[in-house]
Design goal:
The complex is a heterodimer of chains A (360) and B (128). Chain A has 360 residues and is α+β, with helices and mostly antiparallel strands. Among the domains of chain A are: 125 residues, Probable tRNA modification gtpase trme, domain 1 (Gyrase A, domain 2, 2-Layer Sandwich), CATH 3.30.1360; 74 residues, Aminomethyltransferase beta-barrel domains (Elongation Factor Tu (Ef-tu), domain 3). In chain A, 19% of the residues lie in helices and 34% in strands. Chain A has 8 helices and 19 strands. In chain A, the strands form 4 sheets. A 6-stranded mixed beta sheet of chain A has the order 10-11-12-9-3-13. A 6-stranded antiparallel barrel of chain A has the order 14-17-16-15-18-19. The termini of chain A are far apart. Chain B has 3 helices and 9 strands; from the N terminus they run βββαβββββαβα. Chain B is of the alpha+beta class. Chain B is globular, with a radius of gyration of 13 Å. In chain B, the strands form 2 sheets. A 6-stranded antiparallel beta sheet of chain B has the order 1-2-3-9-8-5. A 3-stranded antiparallel beta sheet of chain B has the order 4-6-7. The longest helix of chain B has 11 residues. Helix content of chain B is 17%, strand content 34%. Chain B has a single domain, classed as Beta Barrel (OB fold (Dihydrolipoamide Acetyltransferase, E2P)). Classes of the chains: A alpha+beta (360), B alpha+beta (128). The interface between A and B is medium-sized, with 18 and 13 residues.
Chain lengths: 360, 128
Amino acid sequence: MAQRTPLHDVHVRSGARMVEFAGWDMPVQYAGLLAEHAAVRARVGLFDVSHMGEVVIRGPRALEALNRVFTNDLSKVVDGQAQYGCLCRESGGIVDDVIVYRRAADDLLVCVNAANRQKDFEWLAAHAGGADVRNESDAWAQLAVQGPRAAAVVQRLTKLDLSQLRTYRFGRGDVAGVACVVARTGYTGEDGFELFCPSADGPRLWDAVLEAGQPDGIAPCGLGARDTLRLEMAYRLYGADMDDTTTPLEAGLAWVVKLDKGDFVGRDALVRQREQGLTRKLVGFQLVEPGIGRHGYPVLQDGRKVGQVTSGTRSPSLGTSIGLAYVPPALAAEGSSFAVEIRGKPVAGRAVRTPFYTRK
Amino acid sequence: MEIPDELLYTRDHEWARRKGVHVVVGITDFAQDQLGDVVFVELPAVGDPVKKGESFGVVESTKAVSELFAPVSGKVVEVNDPLADAPETINEDPYEEGWLIVVEPADPGELDGLMDAKAYKTFVEEQD
């Protein structure tokens, strides 16, 4: 049976439409995907993202141990700062993409994808030698408050001075009387927060944020809007745009791969791949003929399959048909033309600059 | 959930309405609700043949692709072209403005095999 977040009853009671995602019974929409998407872009939305996992690494060697399995460089962040990056296999393939929250050099919280909770925990326990690795995923609820009005809404519920909390920084404090880690992070491209709290307090925090956000027109949102919002930003989705067989360099995540920081798992393979050159690259595309390219659809050049779509949708903000696809490097340059095969027919598209959407 | 009495229904959640010798085809309120916001429609051209029970097009929501199945065999005589630019009409008014195609049936007797409103209502309740 699908797993349930601490907010499950709240979603069902509120009439959300539930679907299974990554082994979890999650709300795909409340009032409707497009309305929720628009609310986050224009005002503020609230998401239950408790299916995401939390693996905590503690001990005097925690930072060093985690940095040895992480592509970005944790020595560059300070306490109270978060950093995005990948865990890689020796082959360079991506185990997961994660955000590391540095509470202290000896206390790091790793936020992992729902489907990878156990895999990441086992990977970290096996490779982050010398540190105490714990899977605390079931202990935490996680709510995302996202949108231009997010700060105003959350500020009403906390004494933390959010004006002092910059992007990718976090603090601890009570929100609506619930002890939280308040992080200025998100997956929508808008300003916003991710609130980590004890599982049992999740429903109380959810209700409090919804109530405080009423004057701002807050919308409870499902995973459907979360997906269109992230895709407009070209944020990668693990399991769709990347997996154990794709490397961060192919996935366009070279900016979180610090090859010169010292050794880490996967480094040798990534150095080699960089020297030898890539055979495929993840690019943003826009279709210029009617249609929507979806995960798994072939990318064609001169009628021949040369790549594959990994994500695609109609962009609610832009009204255009957008997506991500692996293509040969020769087709990755902005403006390159190719086709996406949709139900047996080639539909013209071209590589475009990402993010597709720019915050207003 | 709206299920107009005067229409006929398929197990794939299309509706059919007799209009003179022709048959107007659309998707039901239940179908549009299950689908979510419709953002793309692909329909046949006037003159194309359609076959009962076979796909004649697709509707796509932001998340999913759904095929459309013909309730009756025949020839397409009219297509709701404005849907290309306003696919959300299917959500807003599935039984009137959101119609999809008009078919000239090869054998109007085929319609007799479809469900009436009462039978479709029972069918939908079993789906939930």
